[in-house]
Amino acid sequence: MSVTILIVDDSKLARIVAGKALTELQPDWQRVEAGSAAQGLEIVASQRIDVALIDFNMTEKDGLALAAELRALRPDMPIAIITANIQDEVIARAREVGAGFVPKPVTTESLQGFISGAALRLRSGK
Amino acid sequence: MAEAPASDESVAERLRAVLVTSGASGSWDWDIAADTLYFDEHFADLYGLTPEAGVAGVPGATFFSAIDPEDRARMKIAVAGILGGAELFSKEFRIQRPDGSVLWMHGRGQGHLDDRDRSVRFTGLLVDVTERKRTEERLRIAQSAGGVGTFEHVDGFATASVSTEFCRLLGLHPARVLPVRTINSVLLVGDKPIIPDTEQTGEPLDGEFRIIRNDDGAERWIARRGEIVRDSETSGYRFIGVIYDVTAAKQAEERLRELNETLEARVQEEIAERRQAEETLRQAQKMEAVGHLTGGIAHDFNNLLTIIIGNIDTVTRRLDSSSDPRAKRSLDNALKGAERAAALTQRLLAFSRRQALDPKRTDIARLLAGMSDLLTRSITETIAIRIHAPGDLWNVEVDPHQLENAILNLAVNARDAMADGGNLTVEAHNLVAEAGNTAAFVEAGHYVVVSVTDTGTGMTPETVAKVFDPFFTTKEVGKGTGLGLSMVYGFAKQSGGYVHIDSVPGAGTTVDLYLPRAADGEAEAAAEESVQAIELGNRDETILVVEDDDDVRTYTVEILRELGYRVIEAHDGQTALGLLTRTEQPVHLLLTDVVMPVMSGSELADRARAIRPDMEVLFTSGYTRDAIMRDGRIAPGLDLLPKPFTFASLAAKVREMLNRSVA
Amino acid sequence: MSTEPAVTLDELETDALTEIVNIGVSRAASNLRKMVGDQVLLSVPSIEVVSQRRAARLINEREITQLIAVRQDFAGPFSGRALLIFPEENSLELVRAVTGDELSPQEVQDIEHEALAETGNVILNSCLATMANMLQRSLTMTIPEVLRGDGAALFETRDETAADGLVLFLYIDFAVRKRDIRGYIAMLMDLPSLQALKALLGEFIERVVGDDG
Questions:
Q1: Binning pLDDT at 50, 70 and 90, where does residue A26 land?
Q2: Is C16 near chain A, with CB under 8 Å?
Q3: CA distances from B498 to B69, B513, B515 (A)
Q4: What gap in Å lies between CA A53 and CA A34, rounded to an integer?
Q5: How would residue A34 be classed by pLDDT, with cut points 50, 70 and 90?
Q6: C3 pLDDT exceeds 50?
C-alpha cells in the first residue's frame, strides 16, 4: 500500500522544492499539497494521509498550531515542521507537539533523516 | 640515475620552507566537536609549545594562551563567531613569545560546516605582520600629522576600508569600514563621488571635491590622489588612495581670483576718485594762480591810477573858472575813466582776496533796506523786486561796502538773466548748520544766508562750475567784465563764509551767500559818507613820505605840500630811518607804502615808532597782502589809505590823524 | 547635522555584533547557496547608527533603478526590520535560479512574487534566527512581504516621526558569482531596541570572553 504525504506551505516554491527532495528520497510516495492550514485540515478530513510536512511561517494559522491539531487527530502520524526559522525555541516547540524539524531550504540531505524515520515507523506500525 | 624518494622529513621541511617564504608562520586545525587543537611546529614555536603537543592535540582554548591580553577578548568573540557558524576568519592580533617579545599576527581561517550547518572544524594560518604593523603605525602617525586620510575600495563592493583620519576629514565617526554611500553623502550636490560606485572609466584619479563635513556642517574642499591596482583575490580592481583638506589653499585661490576680477573695477573707481580730487585741487590752484596774477596786476594798476588821478586832480584844481570849459570837461572825463579803472582794479583785488576789508558788525536787514532804492533804480521795470529780511536776523561781521557791492553784482546778473522780465527776490534768513545735515561745503556753525533769486534763463551745471572764474562771462562782449561773481566768491571766502549757486536751465538761479554770525553786540552804523571841507595843514606839522615808486612819491609829496604841510621824503625804509635819526625836528606823521623792497612798510613803522613813539603812521597800499594784514583784514588800530587815493581822500585822512594825535 | 547617537556601542560590542551578524549572514548565504546551487559572495558587514531617512537615502542613492525588497519585521527583546533588497531587473533571474531553471518564462513570471517572498523568508529568517540563538533570546517574525519602489518606499514607516529617529543600520551586500544577481541584506533597529541589544551583547561577551577578557 502506497504512502501519502501532505505538504502544507503557503509558498508554491517551497512546495516544489520539498517535492523535489521527496521525489528523490521516496519516488513511490503520493504527494498532496495544501496552501494553508485550513486547506490542510480539509484534506486530512477527506482522505487518508500518512505523513505531514508543515511550514511554520504561515498566515492565519502557523505550522505549530496546525501540527498540534493534527497530532490530536492522529497521535501516531509522523509530522515535521519545515522552516528557516531555526531558533532554538522553535525547534523546542516542534518537539513539544511531537513533530520533527527540517530546516529550510529543504534539501535531500536535510529531509533524509525525517523521511527515513517516518518510513520506518509506517512499516512497523502496519 | 634515479632520484632518491623524498623522506617524510624532507617533505615537511620543504613545506615549511614554502610556508616561510610565503610569509606563513604557523598553521592550526581545531576540531570543534572534540575540542582539540592541532598545530604545526611553527605555531608551537610561536606559542612556546612542543611540536609533539601539536601532533597529539591540546584543548581548544590553548588557541588563546599566547594571545596578548589586550587582544584576547576581541579574538574570543571572533572565534565564537566561527564556532557559531560563521565561515571566514581574518583578524590581526598580538601574541606574546616565550622570550617576552611581542609579534603581530594575521590569522586567516575558515570555519567548516557539516550538512546541518554546524561548525565542526576551524583551520587557519598565522602570518607574522609585525614589520608591516610597524610601518603602518609610522604611516598612521605621518598621516594623522599630515592630515592625510587613506581609503581602499574594491571595485563593486558597497564598502571601503578607511583610516581614522579619513573619517575625521569628512566629519564621520571613526570606522574602519564605511559604506561607499556614506562617504559620498558628504559631497555637495552635483559633485563627482569621492569613491566611484562603478569602475572608473577614464575618470582622473586625482580630484577635488566640495563637501559638507558631517559633524560640524562646515563646507570644505577635499583633494583625492589615488592609484588603481589589480586585486589579487578577486581579479577585480582596487582603488587605493588618500584624501586631504585643501580648503585653505582653495580659499586663497578664490580670494586671489576675486581680487583679479574686481581689480579693474576697483582701479577705475580709485582713478575716478583721484580725478575728482585732482579736479578740485586744480580748480583751487587755478583760482590761486589767477588770484596772484590779478593781485599783482592790480597793484601796478593802482600805482598808475594814483599818478593819473593825482595829476588830473592837480590840473583840475589849477584851472581857474575862466579856462576853456572843454578842457575842464575832458579832464572830468579822464578822471571818470580813471575812477572806473580804479573800481575795476578794486574788484580784481576782491576776487584775489587781497582787497583790504574793513569788517564791521553789520545788521543785514538794515543794509538791505538801505539798498532797496539803489536796487530799484538798477533794475528795469519789467522785473518785480521783493526784498525780505526778518527783524530777528543775527549780526554778521563783514565789510558792509563790499557786501553791498556783492549783492548789487548778484542783482545785476539776475537782471541780465531776465531779459523778458521776471521776479527778483533778495532775502535773508538765519541758518544753523549742523554737522551731517547741511550741504557738505558748509562747516557747522551759525550763518546768515543772503539769497538772490531770479526766474531767468538759469545755467547748466557746466556753466555753474565755471562762473567763479575771473573773466568768465555769459554776457556778450562789452556788456560785463566777468569779474562780478568772482568778486562775490572772493568776498565770501575772505569773510569766512561761502557762496553756493543753485541753478536750473530755464527755471532760474539762486545764489546763496553764507555769512558767519558775529558775536552779539550793537551793529555799528555804516560810516557816513561825509563830504567835508578840505582842511589845510601848516608848516609846523611835518610829514615823512616813504614810497619806492618815484612818481607816486612825487605826487603824494606835492599834494601834502600844497595842503601846507612840511614834507620830507625817502625812497626806502633805510633812508627814512636815517632821516628820523639825524633830524632833531619833530615828525608828526609817517606816510608809508606797505610793499617796498628790502624793508616793508610795517617793519619801518615798528622801527620808526621805536625812535619816535608819538608819531602817527598811515599806510598806503594798492596791494595789501602784507605784514599789516591779519587774515586779510587790517589789524585794529592801523590806518590804511587804499591806493589810488585822491587829493581829497589824502587830505582828509592826514588831517583826521593829526587832529587825533593832538587831541 | 551631527548624528551623535544617544546609545553607542563600544569597540568590543561592535566586534561582537559584527560577529553575530557575520554568523547570521553566513547562514543566510549558505542557504542562498543551497537554493541557487551557486557560490554567494558577501561583503564585510557595515554597522552604522543613522537616521531612518538617511538609511533610505543610503540605499536609494546607490540604485538608479527601481528596487524590489522582501521585508520581514521582527519583535522580541529587540525589534526592527530586516530587508533583502535587489534591483528589480535582477528579480526574474533570481526566481529562475531558485527554481532550478526548470520553469518556462511564463511560469517564472507567474511564480515571481511568491518565489521572491519565499527566498526572502529563507534568507532573512535564517539570519535573524541565528542571531537570536547566539544571543540566547527568541524573536517573533512576521510573514515576508514583497515591496517594489525606491529606497524611500522600502524604508517607509507608518510613524511619521520615526523617519527622523535614529536606527542601527546593518548592511551587507551579496552577489551570486555565476549569475547577474546582487543585492543587500539590511537591518534596522530603533533606539530602544538598540539599548536592549547592547545589554544582550554584554551578556554574549561575558559568556564568550569570560573572566580573562
A1: very high
A2: no
A3: 95, 6, 7
A4: 10
A5: very high
A6: no
Neighbours of C149 (CB within 10 A): 15
What is d(CA A52, CA A33) in angstroms, rounded to the nearest whole number?
10
Mutation choice for B interface testing from C43, C131, C136, C167 by most B CBs within 10 A = C43
CA dihedral C33, C36, C39, C41 (to 10 degrees): -80
Rounded Cα distance between C58 and A46, Å, is: 53
Instruction: Write the CATH number for A14.
Output: 3.40.50.2300
Contact state of C48 with B179 under an 8 Å Cβ cutoff? yes
Considering Cα of B186, then B192, then B198, then B202, what sign does the dihedral take?
Answer: negative
Rounded to two decimals, the pTM is 0.51
Average pLDDT of span B520-545:
64
Cβ–Cβ under 8 Å, residues C50 and C160: no
Within 10 A of B398 (CB to CB), how many other CB atoms are there? Answer: 29
For residues B79 and B163, state if they share a domain: no
Total domains in chain A come to 1
Look up the domain containing B399 and give its range.
Answer: 357-516
Residues B464, B607: one domain? no
Domain count of chain B? 4
Mean pLDDT over all residues of chain B?
80
8 Å CB contact of B115 and A110:
yes
Q: CB neighbours of B205 closer than 8 A, spacing ≥ 6?
A: B224, B225, B226, B227, B228, B239, B241
How far out from the chain centre does Cα A98 lie? 12
CA distance B87 to chain A (A): 18
The Cα B590–Cα B577 span in angstroms is 11
The cell for C201 is 551583547
ipTM over 0.90: no
Residue B439, pLDDT > 70, answer no
Tens of pLDDT, residue by residue over B230-240, are 766 555 678 88
Q: Using the beta-carbon criterion (under 8 Å), do A11 and C132 form an inter-chain contact?
A: no
CA C127 vs CA B323, C24, C72, C147, C157: distances in Å: 147, 4, 11, 20, 23
Residue B525 contacts residue B509 (beta carbons within 8 Å): no
Query: Is the pLDDT at B253 greater than 80, yes or no?
Result: yes
Which domain does A18 fall in, by range? 4-125
- CATH number for B397: 3.30.565.10
pLDDT of residue B636: 58
pLDDT for the residue numbered B304: 83
Alpha-carbon distances of B234 from A11, B237, B402, rounded to whole Å:
36, 8, 106
The verdict on B192 touching C (C-beta cutoff 8 Å) is no
Nearest to C16 by CA among C211, C206, C167: C206
Q: Are residues B444 and B462 in the same domain?
A: yes
Please report the domains of chain C, with CATH numbers, ordered by start residue: 11-207 (3.40.1550.10)
